[in-house]
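Quick review question:
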């Protein structure tokens, strides 16, 4: 009989049955989980009966006794994830546990005679009858490490497989790629994920921007999330979900989603991880972080802080030609940016009862940044190639006391033995900045103009969401949810001209823009397995958005009101255990960013301005894709996307003034294919992954009364290597190479790009040191554009970067000492 892949069956069942304890990595242990799920309901009835009996018969006393021990192989290696079972003599399951990373287990039960068993991935390894009268220490239980056990031991290989509408990356804590790595560093080993070398951004397949969630929740924006992932150890991650085209469960948007699920294990009472890194590019940048994980009884706490002190240089050269006036403008822009960032966070979970948990999260980001630009603008007549004039601009863009504050309160209650549940979240977000843009323009006739732009922004968002998840005995699941958010944004834009003493407000440009938005959504998803070889996930999301933006200086108002339905569908067909097909359909919307609704005009240089567009239309997109997964390691994707009302940034030359704005320009059709795989070779000494993308798209439309016709083919591939040089895999060389053939879009044609990144690391017990370099082969970026009215050529210079980083983990060592002491006591 054809079956769905074991990975999918395992994921579906473990969503209902103690996924924390049994670890989704263990496939065959699902059988035990199913038995245990049925027993939970009976155990609740049994406990109620016992309490009633104790109330009526105080003469009887049932005392709990402990059974503990350690599971080792015959060569004294610990066996993690061994299933420890306590049954009645008739074979009825009563209690179970999972051995920790050092092989230890512990079970509590009433006094009596029982059958004790140890199994591993469904294979029975040990059996013994025991009579419990008092606490029992079984000591070290040695399992013959024979051929059978070798075949079922958990692999150190990373596992990535399609599960309906998302890829799930599992087996992380056992992967050699997670050893001594932060979660962000580990993310870059996933074939379809690309982390920027400086750690400032993440993309799916090198093109799709993402929203980063931690435990399914927004933590205050991607900047905060990236800081957290740079400090959280990869071995503490339970699972990573990569969703390129999110379904109905998520707010409709064109961004992909990366959801990092942190393991809330209590096997380790505490852990402290300290990180420090120094990066030398044109200037030096330093950053450091600290991470603390603590758990005791019903409490689980993770917290940390990320610090960064940076200094960067940027050089850009732009050339614009206005064909009507036959004039050319050349702009050289040298910029130096200095900044400090401080990001603290804390997450607290408390177990109210066996079926209820509450949690609280807090994160913040404090920044002070300053960019100083020297801009030289030269004006030529194209006919005679003579310099007509020249001016120099100095710009100081200072953001002081920028801060983000984010709070989350959450509650979850389990409703039945199948883990049906209701979860609720309340979120509060607030950001404020004080921004001063000082400008000094010097002209050839010794005239100097000084002015200040001060666009201060305040954003406040309140959000409430609740989801109901109903699980059924046939493994189907219904999920419904409601989401409401209210946003208030205010931009206080001061524009002042310098009179020799102070900056005096220019009433023509000083203004206040207030924006209010209400968002409401309902969604429903239903997942059904019709057979062992066919499954369906169908969803529908309704969203309503109402917004209003007003200018203080006049009665002009921007009003937005729209309702949209977003269907989604995923079909999964398991040809057999090694071959699987998945068909996905999703729809999305890219709404007008608030920054583009703000009607202010910003002056960039003596002849260039930035103009926003409050009348921008939303972009709507529909996507259908087919994925073929074979032999667990290989994935082939084919997809088609239809997009309406595309918008992008434009540089237009109007009356020899360079106007940067954003506007709609047409509709697009995109066709693409992706292939990627990951393998471990030479007894796990070489971890190799490869990803390749080929995309063809065409755009038809119009901008500024000029027809738009784009036909483009983009090819990209990426190779990631991790080479381990010693038996214990303490020394690793990470080598990543990428190639992009360049592409053409509405904003111009970009040249081909190469990238080469190196990282050599060495572990010394709990201390890890690495040195490396990135952007070694990256060329300067060139962008060219031309139409009947104007043309431009832009060049962005890049600088190679070198780094050294250190990481120290405190907690493992102390626990190992305690374990060794306990083990010696048992052996003696």
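Suggested answer, residue by residue:
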């Amino acid at each position: 009989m054809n079956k769905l892949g074991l990975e999918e069956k395992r994921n579906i069942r473990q969503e209902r049955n103690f996924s924390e304890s049994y670890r989704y990595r263990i496939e065959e242990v699902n059988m035990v989980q199913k038995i245990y799920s049925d027993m939970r309901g009976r155990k609740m009835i049994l406990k109620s009966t016992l309490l009633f009996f104790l109330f009526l018969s105080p003469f009887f006393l049932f005392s709990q006794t402990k059974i503990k021990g350690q599971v080792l192989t015959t060569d004294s290696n610990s066996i993690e994830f061994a299933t420890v079972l306590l049954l009645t003599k008739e074979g009825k399951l009563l209690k179970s546990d999972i051995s920790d990373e050092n092989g230890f287990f512990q079970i509590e039960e009433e006094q009596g005679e029982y059958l004790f068993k140890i199994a591993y991935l469904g294979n029975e390894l040990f059996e013994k009858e025991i009579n419990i009268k008092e606490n029992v220490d079984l000591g070290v239980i040695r399992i013959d490490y024979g051929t059978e056990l070798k075949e079922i031991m958990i692999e150190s290989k990373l596992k990535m497989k399609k599960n309906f509408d998302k890829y799930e990356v599992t087996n992380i804590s056992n992967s050699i790629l997670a050893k001594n790595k932060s979660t962000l560093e580990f993310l870059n080993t996933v074939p379809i994920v690309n982390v920027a070398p400086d750690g400032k951004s993440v993309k799916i397949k090198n093109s799709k921007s993402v929203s980063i969630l931690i435990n399914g929740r927004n933590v205050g924006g991607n900047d905060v999330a990236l800081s957290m992932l740079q400090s959280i150890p990869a071995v503490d991650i339970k699972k990573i979900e990569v969703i390129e085209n999110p379904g109905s469960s998520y707010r409709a948007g064109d961004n992909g989603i990366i959801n990092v699920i942190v393991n809330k294990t209590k096997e380790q009472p505490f852990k402290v991880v300290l990180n420090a890194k120094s990066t030398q590019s044109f200037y030096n940048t330093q950053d450091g972080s600290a991470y603390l994980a603590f758990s005791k009884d019903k409490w689980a706490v993770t917290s940390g802080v990320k610090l960064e002190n940076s200094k960067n240089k940027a050089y850009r050269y732009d050339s614009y030609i206005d064909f009507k006036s036959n004039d050319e403008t050349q702009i050289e822009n040298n910029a130096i940016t200095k900044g400090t960032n401080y990001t603290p966070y804390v997450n607290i979970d408390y177990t109210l009862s066996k079926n209820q948990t509450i949690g609280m999260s807090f994160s913040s980001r404090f920044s002070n940044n300053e960019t100083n630009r020297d801009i030289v603008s030269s004006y030529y007549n194209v006919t005679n190639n003579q310099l007509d004039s020249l001016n120099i601009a100095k710009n100081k863009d200072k953001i002081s006391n920028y801060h983000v504050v984010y709070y989350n309160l959450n509650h979850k209650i389990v409703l039945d033995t199948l883990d049906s549940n209701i979860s609720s979240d309340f979120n509060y977000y607030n950001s404020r900045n004080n921004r001063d843009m000082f400008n000094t323009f010097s002209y050839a006739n010794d005239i100097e103009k000084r002015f200040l732009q001060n666009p201060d922004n305040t954003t406040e968002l309140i959000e409430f969401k609740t989801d109901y998840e109903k699980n059924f005995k046939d493994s189907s699941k219904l999920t419904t949810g409601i989401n409401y958010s209210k946003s208030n944004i205010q931009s206080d834009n001061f524009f002042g001209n310098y009179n020799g003493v102070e900056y005096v407000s220019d009433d023509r440009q000083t203004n206040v823009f207030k924006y209010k938005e209400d968002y409401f959504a309902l969604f429903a998803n239903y997942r059904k397995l019709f057979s062992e070889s066919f499954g369906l996930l169908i969803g529908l999301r309704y969203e309503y958005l109402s917004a209003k933006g007003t200018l203080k200086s006049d009665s002009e108002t921007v009003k937005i009101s729209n309702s949209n339905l977003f269907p989604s569908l995923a079909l999964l067909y398991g040809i057999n255990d090694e071959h699987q097909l998945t068909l996905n359909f999703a729809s999305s919307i890219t709404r007008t960013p608030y920054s583009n609704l703000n009607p202010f005009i910003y002056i960039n240089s003596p002849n260039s301005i930035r103009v926003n567009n409050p009348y921008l239309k939303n972009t709507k997109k529909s996507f259908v894709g087919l994925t073929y997964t074979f032999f667990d390691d290989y994935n082939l994707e084919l997809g088609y996307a239809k997009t309406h009302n595309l918008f992008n940034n434009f540089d237009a030359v109007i009356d020899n003034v360079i106007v940067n704005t954003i506007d709609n320009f047409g509709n697009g059709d995109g066709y693409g294919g992706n292939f990627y795989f990951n393998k471990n070779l030479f007894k796990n000494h070489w971890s190799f992954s490869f990803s390749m993308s080929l995309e063809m798209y065409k755009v038809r439309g119009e901008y500024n009364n000029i027809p738009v016709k784009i036909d483009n083919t983009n090819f990209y591939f990426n190779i990631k290597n991790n080479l381990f040089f010693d038996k214990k895999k303490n020394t690793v060389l990470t080598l990543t190479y990428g190639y992009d053939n360049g592409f053409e879009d509405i904003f111009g044609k970009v040249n081909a790009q190469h990238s080469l990144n190196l990282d050599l690391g060495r572990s010394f017990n709990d201390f890890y040191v690495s040195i490396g370099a990135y952007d070694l082969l990256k060329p300067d970026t060139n962008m060219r554009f031309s139409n009947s009215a104007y043309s431009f050529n832009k060049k962005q210079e890049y600088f190679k970067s070198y780094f050294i980083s250190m990481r120290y983990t405190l907690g493992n060592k102390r626990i190992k000492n305690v374990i060794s002491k306990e083990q010696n006591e048992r052996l003696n």
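Why it works: The first strand starts at residue 64 and ends at 73. Residues 30-56 form the longest helix (27 residues).
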